[in-house]
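Standup notes
- DV: blocked on the single-chain target, sequence here:
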Amino acid sequence: MHYRPNIDDHGLPHNPFKAIVSPRPIGWISTLNKDGIANLAPYSFFNGIQDVPPMVMFSASGPKTDTDDLKDSLVNIQDTGEFCVNIVSEALKDKMNITSAHYPHGIDEFEQAALEKGTPQVIKVPFVATSPAVFECTLHSIISLPGNGHMVLGEVVCVHIKDEFLKDGLLDVTRYAPMARLGYRDYTSVHEVFSLNRPEQT
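- DV (later): unblocked, structure below
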């Protein structure tokens, strides 16, 4: 089959786009509003985009549910220029899901999910203390996308890694099983890895 998005009806029960672009790592984004109230929300359109200097991106599509307002994460980053990316372990999946609910402005999702706040080293935004790894980020830019979406680019200014997930100096993701988003309401987690060597150049 084939179809042209926004032109053709794909004829399937649900849009397959997110199922095709999968698995997608989850950026669990923490921010502070102008009044110092924390916000925490998961975004599955998230990834690293370069390593020197380290930079990440996530995109927020559309407004808050049932409003014309921008999503709290985006507003807070616009106002403060800071955010944290918290990596979601399998053990944190249920708490991550709690923070995906549509809360009114000014509600602290850390409190809703009974999550301890970690103390940042460089910026002011708290992070999920039990997250296996965290990026403290400063805003590089926000790019408006078609369809009322926004892509946030941030520079990583501090990295936190829990020591128990390091093995022989390497991060062992199988020790915490990072969560990833698939299509529809499906998720997966990483329990097994394999390596490939690049072909020798002649």
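- Follow-up: The radius of gyration is 18 Å.
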